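During the reporting period the student researcher (J.K.) took over the structure-prediction task from the postdoctoral fellow and processed the backlog of single-chain submissions. One of the processed entries is reproduced below for the supervisory committee.
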Amino acid sequence: MLYHAYEVTHALLHPWHRAASVGEMILDHPDNLLRETWTGRNLLASLRMLGQLTRRYDKPQFAIDGTRIFGLPVPVETQVMLSKPFCDLLHFDRDERVCGKRYDPKVLIVAPMSGHYATLLRGTVQAMIQEHNTYITDWKDAREVPITAGRFDLDDFIDYVVDFVRFLGENTHVIAVCQPSVPVLAATALMAEAGDPCTPVSLTLMGGPIDTRRNPTQVNEHAQSHDLAWFRRNVISTVPFPNPGFLRSVYPGFLQLSGFMAMNLDRHVDAYRDYYLDLVKGDADSVQQHHKFYDEYLAVMDLTAEFFLQTLHTVFHEQALAKGTLHHRGRRVDCAAITGTALLTVEGENDDICGVGQTSAAHELCPNIPGADRYHYLQPSVGHYGVFNGTRWRTEIQPRVREMIRTTAFKRRLHPADAA
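J.K. obtained the following structure tokens:
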């Protein structure tokens, strides 16, 4: 019923959205005498605000059409390399006819499946593609996946990671951002124990909840304050008709978004107040920055109920990986099996999603990784988002990831053609 109420609300708001668009078009016409008056500017700002608040935010596009290599502009094409029911493996293919043949390390970025689309990592990708052969997991909105495609849970997530790494082949470096840190570490352990030649050469875990007992945040405390039955009753809903995922049980994106915004409600209220004032002043740059952020932030996806509940139970209630009790399809995950994979953990000093120490806990779980292959970096003065996006990511964190990847490749004495 909750999902149906959400859809009905959107339908009822649609006429208001259309009316706001028409009113904005009329008021913003060059021949309208009210356009440059105090009353006109405030009315136009109100209409634009109404339009923003009543629109539906669709999945954004990466829209990465180029990069610069040694100062030379190089076109980039986004390609789907492998498509699975719940995820596409994307490749950011640089035009080597322009930059020449590149032998850069292969890097798989595993995006979080936690409400926002993989495009939230656009800045992560842009910083990596200059010097890396970059791939990313593009998770699909569960409401768009027909129920005939079957279930998708945490075990399936681990399977997908293994499949993607094997598809890319040997000498692949993997970066897990936030939520995937647990399944990616588990997948690496399972591959290492099986002696899989495609086991990642290096693993970078960024702001991930490896052990949520350490410095618990508001997110951790909320997850632990209720049992699974409570979450099943209060946040799980069924996708309504006529969506392709009709009848699929999901944790709706709009509920996740309400939780995200509630954590920093004052900040969002201030942002929209400033947005209104910038519209009145005609500050186009600030308005554009607001649109750029919120077009991404307000675009959310549904998660399958089984994935959400299993992740909640395994990661936040049981801390199963940290305690050594995590099982994947009946097989215990033993991180001690990882011996030939370099490990870098990255945390943000002000991270209010994954507290300091939660990600670095991975080092204790992997005692057989040589000391020379272990790296940890705590970035001062950044929150969760700043760990993988923004100025600090580009200037301080990404260079360390780059250096670790190349140091690892050198130690393994990988031939350039093998590392590409």
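The committee noted the following: Residues 415-420 have pLDDT under 50 and may be disordered.
J.K. will present the remaining backlog at the next meeting.
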